[in-house]
Amino acid sequence: MEARTLVQSAFRYWIYVRVAPGAVDAERAVELMRLAGDLWGLADALMWAQIHSFFGGRRKDAESLHDELESLSNCPTNSAMSSQRGVAAPTSFTTRYWTVI
Questions:
Q1: What is the dihedral of CA 14, 66, 64, 35, to 10 degrees?
Q2: How far apart are alpha carbons 90 and 79 in whole angstroms?
Q3: Which residues have C-beta within 8 Å of that of residue 69, sequence separation ≥ 6?
Q4: Domain 2-100 CATH (choose: 2.40.50, 2.40.128, 1.25.40, 3.40.50)
Q5: What does the alpha-carbon distance between residue 77 and residue 10 come to, in Å, rounded to a whole number?
Q6: What's this model's pTM, rounded to 2 decimal places?
Q7: Where are the domains of the chain?
Q8: CA quadruple 74, 76, 82, 88: dihedral positive or negative?
Q9: What's the angle, vertex CA 64, arms to CA 90 and CA 96, rounded to 5?
Q10: Which label site among 20, 56, 86, 89 has the fewest CB atoms less than 10 Å from its CB?
């Protein structure tokens, strides 16, 4: 429950353009979702951690989060993720295309 709350907190920080505290909450949510084994929650948390890292100037961190999120969406447990919610696995938020700007 704490992890889901932190993901929502990261979202609210993004809306109010508060990148630094949003990154802290998103990174903590990633840790908790990993411990819980919640793949969908982990995908959500990774996305917000990636967004906050990228816009916080931590491009390398954002790229590594992108890689992890992409591997999660393409992994063999993808079917397990689909069976949890009955929909296809998430795709990643891509910051790599933004680096051209």
A1: 80
A2: 11
A3: 43, 46, 47, 50, 90, 92, 93
A4: 1.25.40
A5: 26
A6: 0.68
A7: 2-100
A8: positive
A9: 75
A10: 86
